[in-house]
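Working notes for the structural subgroup meeting. M.R. asked for a predicted model of this chain before we commit to crystallization trials. I am recording the input and output together here so anyone reviewing the notebook later can reproduce the run.

Input as submitted:
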Amino acid sequence: METGVITHDRERAWPGYTLYCESWEDPRRSPDGKGEILLVDMDGQIVHRWYVETALQSFCRLLPDGDLLYPTRDRSDIAKAGVRRLDPQSNVLWWYHCRIDHDYQVFDDGHMLLHTIRDHMWPQLGRGLKRCPYMVEIDVNQELLWEWHGEHHLEELEALLSADAWDQVRTRIHEEFVFDWAHNNTLQIIPPNATWEKTRGEGDERFRPGNIVFSYRSLDVIGVIDRGSSEIVWAWGPGVIDGQHKPHMLPNGNIMLFDNGTLRGFSRVIEVDPLAVENEDNGIVWEYRAQDPTDFFSPYISGGQRLPNGDTLICEGNKAHLFEVTRAGEIVWDFVNPYRKEGALGSIYRCLRYSPEYCRPLLDRI
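Returned structure, recorded in token form:
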């Protein structure tokens, strides 16, 4: 497969820098004993790289001052698991030890919302050990401010789903995914959005900014948590989506997600009107899939990002393939990671595109 930048329509692609990393279980398997996080320009040239000595199995985030956050998942070394802040020279400035899992968000005041996991017994889910979603908010001094336990909210989920959808969920929990029953892979803080503006006058608090979008991949369920009450207030997905990643609410009030199609055999990126789907409407207002659907398929990981020009940056994770598509589905930037390192898994969990202005503090420090 050709690597590097394969397509670049300079007139239509949204210019910026793309941040990503190969997945690593143990960078000590590489020749230099380190993993890499890369920032590349639109020509696919490395603008900056960070080096790490721990696992890299999720995604990184560039901060406004040029520092970087990255998570280390516990499936490698639990003693080193957590979230780290690096300066541009890869020095660790801050570390919070936790079983970080898949996603995290940063507030303007420096507080962090982290998705982690807890393994314990919960009879409502069946016999034996269960892996459960666990969200926490911490301040800059690492004090615990808020927590949420997914296993406490099963009745809310049942009430929100149709009888057929709940039957599918119950089968998944008790027969197919008896340990990792939820496998939440998303934690998004809802931004100001048009759906909230449309419904707030009716007393509808579900899509209020500050609430949380989650994604139970094992159950084909996405949903919304009311931050104030901690209740699940909206849920959807069984029978329509399949092994999804990164659902997130856009400013227009729709929810975009990478629908992996793990069992279906092809992937797609869809944008869904959350009010339409609850009325048993299809609700899909935009969709990207390949002309031959099986040409675009990542059965795991992956995600999408809506760019300021209306295009969508897509990470087809298992192929380390990043590409930008227009609303009409035309590819205007196409990139396959050419910077493979010995010992890496070869996949990319997610990527993020940043504007040149946002990256200026980093570029001024290197």
